[in-house]
């Protein structure tokens, strides 16, 4: 089992390096062709004649090592084990930029040949997309290997906490992560049980060294409860001298404390254990991003928007839009807009969450909710500054009052603007059948790790989730 895994560990990175070389050369040649042999040469005239392509080829192959070194420094040649190829896109743009800058530095010392600056600008624009496309194909190949049980890494869970069963199920259901859980180890014959499911117990902690060899394990996934973290040194000691990887799933407090920073104020050191999620420049950047994307979406969907409004109006009694008060940033309330997808008397018995096969939903409403089209008017809320495109989903005061005392850190989600979509939703955590606590944990992770790149990633994943999610209703 280990030998097959080792072959994949070598094959995929080597194939990726080869693919990157082909992509870079292709970007150079395509840029050269577009600059000197297309209509672009008429728009931007070539004043000194068409340069010899041989000189470009020599330059390309002499600078390829620079590109590969830059890519390697950003850890782009390890097994991805990502489930979403877009994760690498911004890293690739950064690496392409750095590689071109280094390459231009070499040109400074080449005095007897003049390289076109337009070509390098085009390489910078083209290369990321060619690299991303080829890497996407390799990622698909890697996941195909895993789905066929080729190159799988075998793991065992050590300890029982609230996340043990979730991790066990997640890896064994989704083999595209490249990890399969063989079972779990626990103390004192403690059993891992979750919703009637049975899990394979591999023994006590003392059995770990023997089972590593017997089962060909590659990884130990540590899921110790908070009061048993002192067991970790003992576990490491048990596996001393054994080639095994330890991965620890952090609980919420570990995630928070990992962000501790020491800040001096007038010479006095303070430990900052909680800070504002975004500084002023980040808030401005996010607002500009939201405004631009919202205007673009509303513009291109305006004919569809009008058609849907007419269908909603004439398919059932009631208004086109459903307006409802929601709680936003800092607990401020606002009216959120949606296309009406339920009967007007849907809450005559009081507020309640929507559910699968909800009999309150109108015929057209089922379609709207399935593909999240009913959320489209919320881009108006974004333009008004009441919401963001990405953020924790807004909730009604009725449910906020119910959940704030029962769900840990529930009110932390009000530290940023609520969103049309969020990190929890694109990870399948939507609908009444999913864990509210887990949803909040994902929201907090988003708040603490916000970036424009993160927002774009969530938006792209939202499109996929809207089309294929089984939790949408």
Give structural notes.
With 473 residues, the chain is an alpha/beta fold. It has three domains: 2-147, no CATH class; 153-249, NAD(P)-binding Rossmann-like Domain (Rossmann fold); 280-468, no CATH class. 49% of the residues lie in helices and 12% in strands. The chain is built from 17 helices and 13 strands. The chain has helices spanning 2-36, 40-43, 53-73, 89-107, 117-147, 164-173, 208-215, 232-238, 252-257, 280-300, 302-315, 363-370, 378-383, 397-403, 423-426, 436-448, 452-468; strands spanning 153-158, 179-185, 193-194, 197-198, 201-203, 219-222, 245-248, 261-265, 268-272, 321-327, 333-339, 388-390, 419-421. It has a five-stranded parallel beta sheet. Strands 3-4 form a two-stranded antiparallel ribbon. Helix 14 (397-403) links the parallel strand 12 (388-390) and strand 13 (419-421). The longest helix is centred in the N-terminal third of the chain and has 35 residues, at 2-36. The two termini are 42 Å apart. The mean pLDDT is 82.
């Amino acid at each position: 089992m280990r030998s097959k895994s080792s072959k994949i560990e070598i094959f995929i990175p080597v194939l990726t390096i080869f693919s990157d070389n082909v992509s870079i050369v292709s970007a150079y040649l395509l840029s050269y062709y577009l600059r000197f042999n297309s209509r672009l040469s008429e728009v931007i005239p070539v004043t000194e004649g068409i340069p010899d392509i041989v000189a470009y080829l020599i330059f390309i192959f002499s600078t390829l090592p620079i590109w590969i070194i830059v890519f390697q420094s950003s850890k782009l040649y390890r097994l991805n084990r990502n489930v979403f190829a877009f994760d690498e896109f911004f890293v690739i743009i950064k690496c392409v930029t750095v590689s071109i800058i280094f390459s231009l530095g070499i040109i400074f010392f080449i005095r007897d040949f003049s390289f076109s600056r337009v070509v390098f600008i085009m390489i910078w624009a083209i290369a990321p997309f060619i690299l991303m496309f080829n890497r996407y194909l390799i990622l698909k190949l890697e996941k195909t290997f895993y789905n066929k049980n080729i190159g799988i890494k075998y793991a065992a869970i050590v300890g029982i906490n609230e996340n043990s069963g979730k991790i066990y199920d997640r890896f064994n259901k989704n083999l595209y992560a490249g990890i399969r859980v063989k079972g779990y180890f626990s103390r004192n014959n403690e059993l891992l049980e979750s919703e009637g499911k049975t899990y394979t117990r591999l023994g006590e902690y003392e059995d770990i060294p023997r089972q590593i060899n017997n089962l060909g394990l590659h990884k130990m996934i540590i899921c110790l409860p908070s009061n048993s973290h002192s067991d970790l040194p003992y576990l490491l000691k048990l596996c001393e001298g054994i080639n095994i990887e330890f991965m620890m799933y952090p609980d919420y407090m570990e995630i928070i404390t990992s962000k501790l920073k020491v800040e001096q104020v007038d010479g006095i050191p303070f430990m900052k254990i909680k800070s504002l999620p975004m500084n002023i420049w980040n808030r401005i950047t996010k607002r500009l991003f939201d405004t631009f994307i919202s205007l673009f979406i509303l513009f291109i969907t305006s004919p569809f928007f009008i058609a849907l409004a007419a269908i909603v109006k004439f398919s059932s009694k009631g208004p086109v839009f459903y307006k409802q008060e929601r709680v936003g940033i800092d607990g401020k309330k606002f009216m959120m807009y949606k296309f009406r997808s339920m009967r007007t008397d849907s809450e005559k018995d009081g507020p309640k969450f929507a559910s699968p096969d909800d009999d309150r939903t109108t015929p057209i409403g089922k379609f709207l909710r399935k593909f999240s089209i009913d959320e489209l008017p919320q881009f108006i809320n974004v333009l008004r500054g009441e919401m963001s495109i990405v953020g924790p989903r807004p909730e009604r005061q009725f449910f906020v009052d119910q959940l704030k005392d029962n769900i840990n850190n529930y009110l932390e989600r009000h530290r940023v603007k609520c969103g049309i979509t969020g990190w929890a939703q694109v990870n399948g955590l939507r609908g009444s059948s999913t864990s509210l606590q887990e949803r909040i944990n994902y929201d907090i992770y988003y708040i603490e790790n916000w970036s424009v790149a993160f927002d774009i990633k969530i938006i792209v994943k939202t499109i996929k989730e809207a089309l294929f999610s089984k939790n949408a209703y």
